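Working notes for the structural subgroup meeting. M.R. asked for a predicted model of this chain before we commit to crystallization trials. I am recording the input and output together here so anyone reviewing the notebook later can reproduce the run.

Input as submitted:
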Amino acid sequence: MKLTHWIQVLMRTRRFGLLVLLLIWGLGVSLLVLDKRPLPRMGSQGARHSEPTRVHNLVQQHFAMRQENALVLVSAGVPPPQLLEQLRAYPDITLVREMPSRKGRHHLVYLQMDPNISVFEAESHVPRLRELLARSSASSGVKTWLTGQQAFLYDMGQAGKKDTARTEGLGLLLAFAVLVGCFGSLSAAALPIGLGITTLMGTQVMIRVLGLGTSQTSIILNSMVGLGLAIDYALFMVSRYREERSRHDMETALQIMLRHTGRTVLYSAAVMITALLILLIPDVDALRGTVMNLLLVVILAAANAVILLPLLLAFLDPWLDRPRWLSRWILRWHSENRWRLLARHVTGHPIRYALLSTAILLALAWPLGSIRLWEPMQTMAPAESQSLQGFEALAAEGWGGEVLPIQILIESPADQPLTSPEQIARLYALTTALEALPEVASVQGLVHPSEPLRNWQSLYGSLGALGAFAPQHPLLRSTPSGDLTLVHAHLHDIMDIPSAYRVLAWIQDYERAHPGLELSVGGIAARARGFTHEMYRHLPLMLVLIMVSILALLSVYLKSIVLPLKAGIMNFLPILSAFGILVWAFQWGGLIQSPGVTNIVPLTL
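Returned structure, recorded in token form:
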């Protein structure tokens, strides 16, 4: 159906159409209000075929361990025995182990959640466990904190929700002020804002209905992109309608608006959808889930612009300049002459302005040459959060890296058991060199440099002689294809992400220099680094596909080859400038000092 035909249908059935849309909107609001369940969460497997994910799966399969499902209880005194019994009886907690205090100030209890539950189920236990700890603290007077990976994620998510709500409110307020100044009318300015709110609510409803996963990143991006697109689309449509309405009747103005601006909106949405579909190439669950969310946002924003907005304009046409006294007062300050003079000056000196604007954009893009990506992970937890306060108490006690260790999985073929003297010697050399690194506080594995090598060789030789009667070491497993063991490297400061990267690089170099050991690196830091690598591994291909597909779409729309090329250049330089500003603001410390730019941000831009 052509857009002009849609207007004819709309004018004939506008009351029924608006009633249906209001009914759908009411059902959506009811679903959001009555359904108390949290939004579905997307998978967190990272790059599914990467080495860290393989380590994660093998450790869960053979060692029944899931690093991100571990929590640590920190107490300012001896934990009450009743509390420990309640934790042992708590559903989905498979292990409660008291850990020795190193400096006597705090007591520590290691909690292992069931490794078979998802990380999001484990995260959902954090507030319940904290309620249990709060009741215990109230009765015993012993202050407690709950920290660990899921506690970090929970606190980050709660802070993100507050920040998102605050940002959305401030953004809507500022947008409304700008729109009032643009339209000179409160009622006309309210339409784009209403469209933005409707798009955000519709996105949440459809996510629930379709069962799409969400993450804190996707929720923030949904809010930013949804508000931006919906308000932009509505701004263009309402501006064109009011311009045409001053010369034509309502139906003709709506037809012209949809024939020109509506078509532009649909092509703009098609360009965004095409670019987003190409971002599905990297095999990363979190990225694909975020892209699916954004696809839904773009489709809803465009649909609202060409379906809901014309209906609202048809009904609200007599009130678009209300209140009139405010409209007259604002319009007195509008001066088209100033813009007309500026436009004439720019078009009269095109080369001068082209060189000036290009120089400014290139200067802003200059910092891009030193861009460095990083994965903030647990460092994003707020300073006042219980997880960070608990970690600081851990660090004061001499612990810390044990919460999120770097995992090294060592595999050995069946004819070379890891308990043989040769393999024990290799493990001993590895752990000795690893513990000597300045970033590493301690190492846990089959052997440790605190004892001479010959003692370990003798110990495992004696255990080997016992055969099936030998006790099983918690970090050693035998499989039909060979032996597996784990080495845990505990960092001095898990908040120092660059130090984790240096250790990861050292392990890779060590493996290349010692071919006798087959090492695979896992852990939260390694998985985050693998996530980034997989996202950007296909970047050249994705850029080419995006540019070719967008040029093809714009060529069809503009019926020209030169104009899409100009549009591409005009968009390419500002994007580079935006990257440069990001590097200056965060990596160079212009606004906030951080080791780099968060990994997903450049790809999303």
